[in-house]
Amino acid sequence: MTKLRAAITGISGYLPEYRLTNDELSTMVDTTDEWIMQRIGIKERRILKDEGKATSDMGAEAVKSLLNKTNTSPEDVDLLITATITPDMFFPSTSNLIAHKTGLINSWGYDLLAACSGFLFALQTGVSFIESGNYKKVIIVGADKMSTITDYTDRTQCPLFGDAAAAALLEPTTEDVGIIDHILHTDGSGAKHLHMKAGGSLKPPSHQTVDAKEHFIYQEGQAVFKFAVSHMADVSVEMMKKHNISSKDLAWLVPHQANLRIIEAVARRMGIRKEQVMINIEKYGNTTAATIPLCLWEWEDRMKRGDKIILASFGGGFTWGSIYLKWAYDPS
Length: 332
Hints:
Layout: E1 5-14, E2 18-21, H1 22-25, H2 33-39, E3 44-47, H3 55-69, E4 79-83, H4 94-102, E5 108-112, H5 118-131, E6 138-145, E7 163-173, E8 178-186, E9 194-196, H6 207-211, E10 217-219, H7 221-242, E11 252-255, H8 260-270, H9 281-284, H10 291-298, E12 308-315, E13 319-326
Parallel strand pairs: 4-5, 4-6, 11-12
Antiparallel strand pairs: 1-7, 2-3, 6-7, 8-13, 9-10, 12-13
Helix pairs in contact: 3-4, 7-8
């Protein structure tokens, strides 16, 4: 019996218009363009400044664009999964709101929270639905409005994050393309190094938590850097060995865009050239669940059918993993 696989058959994204540059940040906190570029590798990041707009609005724009470019009717979509840590609200889910705004009247869906690994976790979840044989069109969204949980008085945090959304269409195939394998991990002991202190059931919102700035990202940079390099590299090398993929065989590494030095260190451990790595952190910063699909969207015209690609991520929780796929279509 021919194996049924899930393949990405379309990708699209959305970026807010406003560009927050390093020069503008230097007027807000004690930093410089040189300091940020040397340590992080980010030149600017997009910020959603439109009043009354939230994560679902960015996600909806990405989905509308995806439907249009793949000539997909909204009524034909079976399932929508949104990876995000900045939902519009605790409930209803951001997926529900995106579906409503894009006319996915026959789709059900939900949100998945895995921080910067969210897109990979959601993608593999969507793959499982496709491989069941019961779903024909599944949309995976990675979207975050990180500006809402970033402290713009903290010089170590505010240069890192941006806002964006991207969406991928999954469809079944019996050909030798699509998502082939995944290695995904979590380790809750890492929560102390990267988390948001307040806002949940453990520490509900109060005047005290707001005054203490406990609704912003808390990160211990050195610990996170160390774990990110080792875990992303290890899981990517493991995937290469498991499928006998040489550095010459690999067309692309698509890493989570958190820090340029992390990306470079992972590529070195994998033995691949910089030209094989998708990097756009300089333009967009860390958009959390949106970074990997944004790369796929931006590199879409450079990927060819059959290209061997490894997606790799690391995020708060800790969460990390890799997905191995063969690209399913040639550039239009």
